[in-house]
Design brief:
alpha+beta, seven-stranded mixed β-sheet
Length: 1144
């Protein structure tokens, strides 16, 4: 690791990604340097022509007046913020008289923000920034003009409200097709829609209130929905319904259908299908077929036709020359339906850009570096817990309809964090996602921060050895994702410098996507030549599952405005639509026909009528986590399963440091330098309300002090979420903007401007304000990543459970197939194809290669779950469970064990009873136990009980050969736990449960014996002291708990298994403890011998699992309590071992 000047990138092995030769060029509309004339010579953008104090009303008025003469900025403001644009015109024409001082100051800052955005932020938005197509070539070339063109669509939020109004006209409704909403579920006597749209109502005006819609599931409603599962004309649905229910008049049926349309139980064809076509054309075309529209509908149709003509006129003008046409267009649109922003405008830049192939090669290398540094998980983190739960409940051989799975009344419910509707799943702690090398990587990241602080530099440079240390593991090339997009900024001083390889590549604050072409899709209709070229990006995306087909996802987003980004062509030719009418010319797969299955590696999506696996994809940049119904989000995330997804740089626990440096490898900047302005945030809040003459000077001193303390450059990017402003901290107006942003956004950070601190000049490419979106696919496109029968990998071994130290709580293992009965649902059940079906091999991939023995109904194991309060478990085990075990023994049970457990349904005891004669166990024991449990439930001893299958976790305890010895340990440890709980119950004995847990853990570790030669070593070298050897692996001396340090003498007296427990044996209660543990410890010795002979499972893993289960049986799943118990036992046996060592 070094802090040095710029160097060329090393020659690296072939990158895992291959970039396309075309890229999307995104740039602000105005040049970074303002033109002369009305503007000053300042580089940082618009400000009052004579400077002045931002608190001065005259200065604010001058700034607004100077903005009014900029035709491009004025046109952009009219479109983005009509009220602000009107105020600017008012100040220009009539001065600031009559405008409140606060309003004038806020307007000046708002205009300045918009002006900076138009000069420095490349994210496409209205007339502020636009796009062009660029290419990689042999040399760098760029040419730009001023003939930028707009492409104007009707805003989807505005158009949606118009559509809902038109649907209330019977004359319109009678001409439309209708179909049932794809996400309907039956729940008792109700038909429920859990993700209704906002119907075009903006956020804050009631659109959030429609969380659920339901109607009574009457015979007529069910008939309507059944008939409308596929689109059909409204008149045909009316006829079929009245024929089926002759007692219902046509008027009543019409009223019912109209209400079902209003509630979105039925969708009409008036909704634009969001398939890449023009939404306004779609609505106008359907209205043309209405024979006798109402007066209101006729006026709406004529006004929409006028909007259509006016937008053509506006789009025919170059940017900046169409303000008059835009005004007429906005006025006409608002006469149809009031809305501040009834239009959605994208801008095509008059730019031609070519970059050298060396830039493309560097971006490929950069993507490979970020992929190598990504966390070792396949798919998104959000699904890892859901995958585990799916396997636990359904196993690996069952396909569950997606709507049944997501309904918490019938399935698992939505994964944690899902929000439409809100998930009921318990939060997953962040540490659950940490891999085995997280701590090591955190230390490496800490060194980067320390190097920057020690050297006083803003940059640290990584070499290959540093990269290796920062990687979580050796990434498997088989896990490279299908495709991706990487958004970068390429900084160079000139085109010649680019050709010479003298450039840097910065990852953009908006880093990219997981599918090539997603960013391009929205702009495909900007130019005739773009559509086919951009569509090819989607077509060229490989599919990572052998024999699977890609399927587009299409949905009406939660936010009406987000739909502006969603009307894109389904590039796969097939789609799953939710909340939308079917798209003409597209193969529609019904959501009710889609099921979810699982291999041991991943969740899968299956088209149940054929059994064929599908890979759902989202071909645009609408955020599925924020905007998609849960079913769509789940399918999208399943489409990313089986791939190790690239991630931008992550500072981990140091993300909130006051300063983190730029991180570079070769010519690629993985992370820009970042400063947190926490030191001046409180000062900003104090100064905002002041209005005295010293306020501006005080703020300038505060900013100067922060810059001096942390070496903050003059020009920064003020970043919050996906918003960023380029600010010049030497400018008084920009400092005022910083103050305003700090008060409004608690998460604001300051980020370096790419290339800025090296004083590189702004080239014609303006690299620090221009972004390139580069699509990539994996190089081995012909080799699928996930093959049939991929279930041989055990997620316990390859996932987070592998990092568990002895004594740490284990993760539930991925089980062999479990097939409990599921409740009946109205959805189509999976249909298994026969061997001759082409998808048969895919269908059978849900079964693991080697089926493990699972004990279910009628087998030799009876598995009972006793549910109730965790606080009552001790009494239940002491007073009641022994009677149950004795009763089972009289009817064929010969051994047993128990586990305390907590799942999504609450706390329970898991009792497993074995019988060599299953007929006796199930024929005699079960009826007897059933009568006993009914009595317990009646008396309030337990809340309920259930049966389940017993799947032995052989991999944790030595493999199949060690299963019986392990079950003997479970049995005797359970009996010991019951006996110890009885000892703890009597206060005269002098031992509480935790004391006894310490003794039991130390005894077990001693009984397991010392490791085999070549086995685990400890730093202390405890030789033949097995207890000290194994327990020393549960933590260090520094971690010994206070409970041990406070009473260390007592613990050393009690806990001495190596010398035969002399003190404990002299105490009558202690002797009872040793008697209870003796059968268990003999069984542990037999298991240890078997584990060592088999050699399948590391001894440390077996001991750690056994120690955890000792604590589980005595007091349950408290990780902190278990850590304390193990720490006390560790401290005591280590002290004895050290004493013996010094006595030799």
């Amino acid at each position: 690791m070094r802090a040095s000047t710029r160097t060329s990138a090393r020659a690296s092995p072939a990158a895992p990604f291959e970039a396309k030769d075309v890229f999307l060029y995104r740039a602000p509309l105005a040049p970074p340097t303002p033109p002369s004339g009305a503007r000053t010579e300042a580089r940082s953008g618009l400000r009052a022509p004579t400077g002045g104090d931002p608190r001065s009303l005259d200065a604010c008025a001058r700034l607004l007046a100077s903005a009014a003469v900029d035709t491009v900025l004025g046109e952009a403001l009219d479109l983005a913020s009509p009220s602000l644009g009107a105020l600017v015109r008012r100040v220009c024409e009539h001065g600031p008289d009559g405008i409140r001082p606060g309003q004038l100051r806020r307007a000046a800052l708002a205009v300045l923000r918009y002006d900076i955005r138009m000069r420095t932020r490349p994210t496409p938005f209205g007339l502020f920034a636009g796009v062009a197509r660029g290419r990689f070539d042999t040399t760098a070339e760029s040419g730009s003009g001023t003939a930028h063109r707009t492409r104007t669509h009707a805003d989807m939020q505005w158009l949606t409200r118009i559509g809902h109004r038109l649907e209330r006209d019977p004359a319109v409704l009678s001409t439309l097709t209708v179909q049932a909403h794809q996400a309907l579920v039956a729940r008792g006597d109700r038909l429920v829609l859990t993700a209704p749209s906002t119907q075009g109502v903006p956020p804050g005006e009631g659109g959030e209130g429609r969380s659920t819609v339901s109607v009574r599931r009457t015979a007529v409603v069910e008939r309507v929905v059944t008939e409308a599962m596929t689109p059909l004309p409204y008149g045909e649905l009316l006829r079929r319904t009245t024929d089926a229910f002759p007692g219902a008049s046509p008027e009543r049926v019409r009223g019912l259908l109209a209400e079902l349309v209003r509630q979105e139980i039925l969708l009409t064809g008036l909704r634009p299908p969001l398939d890449g076509g023009d939404p306004l054309h779609h609505v106008i075309g359907l209205l043309a077929g209405v024979a006798e529209p109402s007066g209101e509908t006729l006026r709406t149709r004529d006004a929409l036709l006028a909007v259509e003509e006016l937008r053509k006129a506006y789009d025919a003008r170059t940017v900046g020359a169409g303000r008059e046409e835009l005004g007429r267009l906005l006025s006409t649109a608002r006469s149809v339906e009031p809305d501040d922003t009834p239009l959605h405008v994208d801008t095509r830049l008059d730019v031609d850009v070519r970059l050298p192939y060396a830039v493309r090669d560097e971006i490929e290398t950069a993507a490979g570096v970020m992929w190598r540094l990504s966390r070792p998980k396949l798919g998104l983190l959000a699904l890892r817990d859901h995958h585990r739960r799916f396997l636990d409940v359904y196993g690996a051989d069952r396909v569950v309809p997606v709507l049944e799975l997501l309904d918490p009344s019938t399935g698992l419910g939505a994964p944690e964090g899902y929000g439409w509707p809100n998930s009921e799943a318990a939060p997953v702690p962040p540490e659950a996602y940490e891999g085995p090398r997280t701590a090591r990587r955190n230390r490496a990241v800490a060194r980067l921060v320390a190097v920057a602080q020690r050297t006083g530099r803003r940059e640290v440079v990584l070499d290959d050895a540093d990269l290796d240390e920062l990687c979580h593991d050796a990434a498997d090339p088989a896990d490279v994702p299908n495709s991706c997009e990487v958004t970068v900024q390429v900084v160079a001083s000139s085109a010649a410098a680019l050709d010479a390889g003298d450039f840097l590549v910065f990852l953009s604050p908006s880093p990219g996507s997981h599918r090539a072409g997603s960013t391009f899709a929205r702009f495909a209709d900007q130019h005739p030549s773009w559509e086919a070229e951009f569509a090819a990006l989607h077509r060229d995306n490989p599919v990572h599952v052998q024999g699977a087909v890609a399927v587009d996802l299409a949905f009406r987003p939660r936010s009406g405005r987000a739909a502006n980004l969603a009307h894109t062509v389904p590039a796969t030719g097939r789609r799953i639509g939710v909340g939308l009418p079917d798209a003409p010319g597209t193969e529609e797969l019904r959501l009710a026909d889609i099921g979810v299955g699982a291999t041991l590696d991943r969740l899968t999506a299956v088209h149940m009528p054929t059994g064929r696996e599908i890979v759902p994809v989202l071909g645009n940049m609408v955020s599925a986590p924020a905007q998609a119904p849960n079913a769509v989000r789940l399918l999208w995330e399943i489409g990313l399963e089986g791939q190790r997804l690239w991630e931008p740089w992550n500072w981990g626990p140091f993300a909130d440091a006051p300063f983190v440096p730029r991180v570079r490898h070769g010519r690629f900047v993985l992370a820009s330098a970042v400063w947190r302005p926490d030191g001046i945030r409180a000062r900003a809040r104090d100064l905002r309300t002041r209005d005295d003459g010293e306020r501006t000077a005080d703020w300038a001193r505060a900013v100067a002090g922060w810059r001096a303390d942390w070496d903050v450059p003059s020009r920064i990017l003020a970043v919050t979420a996906d918003q960023r402003l380029l600010l010049d901290l030497d400018d008084v107006w920009h400092r005022e903007l910083l103050l305003d942003q700090l008060v409004r956004h608690s998460d604001l950070i300051a980020q370096e401007v790419p290339g800025e601190h090296e004083d590189w000049l702004d080239s014609p490419l303006a690299g620090h304000v221009v972004e390139l979106v580069v699509p990539m696919t994996r190089r081995a496109a012909g080799r699928p990543l996930c093959r049939p029968y991929a279930g041989s990998r055990d997620p316990v071994r390859s996932g987070r459970a592998e990092s568990r130290a002895p004594g740490a709580p284990p993760s539930p293992a991925a089980s062999a197939p479990r097939t409990p009965d599921s409740p009946c649902t109205p959805h189509t059940p999976p249909r298994a194809p026969g061997p001759s079906h082409p998808s048969y091999a895919l269908r059978t991939s849900y079964a693991p290669r080697t089926l493990r023995t699972v004990h279910g109904l009628g087998g030799e194991w009876l598995y009972l779950k006793l549910r109730g309060s965790a606080r009552a478990h001790d009494d239940l085990l002491r007073e009641y469970v022994p009677a149950l075990v004795e009763l089972a023994g009289r009817h064929g049970a010969d051994r047993w064990f128990f586990v305390r457990y907590t799942d999504d349904h609450g706390h329970h005891l898991r009792l497993r009873l074995h019988g060599s004669c299953p007929e006796a166990l199930w024929g005699k024991a079960v009826p007897a136990l059933g009568a006993l449990l009914r009595t317990w439930q009646r008396d309030g001893v337990v809340r309920g009980h259930s049966l389940d299958q017993y799947d032995p976790e052989t991999e944790r305890y030595g493999g199949p050969a060690a299963r019986r010895p392990a079950e003997d340990v479970f049995r005797y440890d359970s009996e010991a736990a019951v006996a110890l709980l009885r000892v703890a119950k009597d206060p005269t004995n002098g031992y509480d449960v935790d004391d006894l847990a310490v003794l039991s853990c130390a005894a077990l570790a001693h009984a397991f014996g010392t490791p085999v030669p070549g086995g685990p070593k400890t730093a202390e070298g405890y030789g033949d002291d097995a207890a000290a050897t194994w327990l020393s692996m549960t933590g260090s001396r520094r971690d010994l708990p206070g409970a041990f340090r406070a009473r260390s003498a007592r613990w050393r007296e009690l806990v001495d298994p190596y010398d035969g427990w002399p003190s404990l044996a002299r105490d009558p209660a202690g002797a009872r403890v040793l008697d209870a543990l003796r059968p268990r410890d003999r069984a542990v010795g037999r298991l240890a011998a078997c584990v060592r002979a088999a050699g399948e499972t590391p001894e440390g893993r077996v001991v750690g699992s056994l120690l955890h289960m000792v604590c589980n049986r005595l007091f349950g799943g408290s990780g902190a309590r278990e850590t304390t118990v193990l720490g006390i036992a560790r401290g005591a046996v280590q002290d004895h071992a050290n004493r013996r060592r010094h006595q030799q």
